Amino acid sequence: MSHQFLVVGLGRLGIAMVGTLDSLGHEVLAVDAKEGLIQALANDMPNVHFVAADATDEDVLLGLNVQDFDAAAVVIGENHVEAGILTTANLKEIGLPLIVARATSKLHARVLERVGADRIIQPELEMGEQAARVLASPGMLDYVDLGENEALIEARVPSQWVDKSLAELALSRSLGLTVVALKPREGEGKLPRGDTVLREGDVIVVGGTKKRLDASPLSGRPPGRRR
């Protein structure tokens, strides 16, 4: 089912969002104040409606009929913090059901929340945290921040867990973690059960709070090390 999305701000993040939404078959309106940039991008993505406009002007947004859209992303660059805040406030006033906004600091995030952003993203912070976790734990393959202090880790089975069953490890009771998927070193992925024995080279997906995941062998933290 196709939806209508508005993306305001066409830096690298905005362009990536526009391209992905377009590839998924959705209708996309992409807005940026730089007319030259708009013209260049329009040639590369003919299915996207590109507009050079000042999104801080509520009348301009109303003229683009954004009130009928399903959601908007305000990802204006870090050198234009005020513009991002004003645009978010305008879209909230217009009544968009979902507004995702980019923040460059904790203070910026709090302001965006107060003016109506439904979800805040901080891509530089999030990518930095993810890269640090992968660096600290070579066995970690992916880290997904679920928000609300929850996360998922995809990793190779730690040596401490090799040749033990999930029932024996009792990760939920002992560490507050849940194994949600298992991909054996050989064979297809499967749903884990209590009698599932973890082998060296297996890949598991584990969910829990960030604090508990950081304290587990999955994080790469040295034994006994505390914050």
UniProtKB/TrEMBL annotation:
Pfam families named among the record's database cross-references: TrkA_C, TrkA_N
Residues in RCK C-terminal domain copies: 138-222
PROSITE patterns (UniProt xref): RCK_C (PS51202), RCK_N (PS51201)
Gene Ontology molecular function terms on file: monoatomic cation transmembrane transporter activity
InterPro entries listed in its UniProt record: NAD(P)-bd_dom_sf (IPR036291), RCK_C (IPR006037), RCK_C_sf (IPR036721), RCK_N (IPR003148), Trk_Ktr_HKT_K-transport (IPR050721)
GO BP terms, alphabetized: potassium ion transport
Domain RCK N-terminal, chain residue ranges per copy: 2-121
UniProt protein name: Trk system potassium uptake protein TrkA
Source organism (scientific name): uncultured Rubrobacteraceae bacterium
